[in-house]
Amino acid sequence: MSKTILLIGATGNQGGAVLRALLDNPLFSPETYTIYAVTRNTSSPSATALAAKSPAIKLVNGDLNNVPAIFQSLPSKPWGVFSVQPRGKEEIAQGKAIVDEAVKAGVSHFVYTSVDRGGPASDTTPTDVPHFKSKHELEQYLRDAAAKSSGHMTYTILRPCFFLDNLQGGFVGKVIATAWRDHIPSDKKMQVIAASDIGWFGASAFLNSTSPDYRNAAISLAGDNLTYGEANQIYQKETGQPIPTSYGFIASSLVGMVKGVRLMFKFMRTQEVGADIARLRAMNPELKTMQSWAADLSLAKNRKG
């Protein structure tokens, strides 16, 4: 009998990365796993392209403001759940509802993607950054629910550091890169992670759910640790161009006027994150550095060109 995984945000950045990593993993096959891929519109081009990747993928139309309806629409109860929510006023309610429905459905393993707040210190450090605090609250809610399940539901919490994918360009990406350049000290190193590696660890958490590395574990994720200047030098060497940025006043306005962004960059300036990159690379020898990620980006752009 195949195991079923309910994958929230299947067409999003992190959910999509987990799905692709599952399909690429030799331990995965359509005979042993089925993925219920939740998307807001099962008829969208991105959703239909997703379904075409494998017979293991079954599209599920879902609204995170009505989580019980998502679970009720499934052909069978899920063995696993991957949970990620967009930041915002509904994040906590949506996240708790997914945990609640997972417990009711008898889910065996729950993978939640959160954010790093200082490595092991993340357990007790909500910080004053609004979307960091909400994720800390959801982590605690998941832990409590798992404990109350008397060991039936186990969990893995993934805590990514700064996303390398922010550096690909686009308006938002350019502003984020500019804020890193202008609002983080030039000698301050940042831990960074590729979305594809978040996907790798998410998939591995399901496929190795009984391993001590993943069973009731929280893992901070990063593949490199470097300053903006070092990152920009590597990016330019691999792609032939500097990291795409915007006007400094735009980033400064965002940091100055938006409380959540201001507090996040204050945290990034003054606190240390805590991913154990050596341990992560032992778990995943192909964990991307800034250099390998930028090289892959350059290759992808050349193919499109």
Walk me through the structure.
The chain is built from 12 helices and 10 strands. With 305 residues, it is α/β, with parallel strands linked by helices. The strands form 2 sheets. A 7-stranded parallel beta sheet has the order 3-2-1-4-5-6-9, with helices on both faces. The chain has a 3-stranded mixed beta sheet with strand order 7-8-10. β1 (3-7), α1 (13-24) and β2 form a beta-alpha-beta unit. α1 crosses α7, α6 (170-183) crosses α9 and α8 runs parallel beside α12. The longest helix has 19 residues, at 130-148. It is globular. The model has no long low-confidence stretch (mean pLDDT 94).
Brief synopsis:
The protein is of the alpha/beta class and about 300 residues long.
List keywords for this structure.
305 residues; alpha/beta; 12 helices; globular
How many β strands by DSSP? 10
Reading the helices and strands in chain order gives EHEHEHEHEHEEHEHEEHHHHH
Structural class: alpha/beta
Order of the strands making up the biggest sheet: 3-2-1-4-5-6-9
Kindly state the percentage of residues in helix: 40-55%
Q: Kindly, what is the distance between the CA atoms of the first and last residues, rounded to a whole number of angstroms?
A: 45 Å
- The amount of beta strand, in percent, is 15-25%
* Major β-sheet annotation: 7 strands, parallel
Please state the overall shape, judged from the principal axes of the Cα atoms: globular
* Gyration radius, rounded: 19 Å
Count of helical segments? 12
- Overall average residue pLDDT: 94
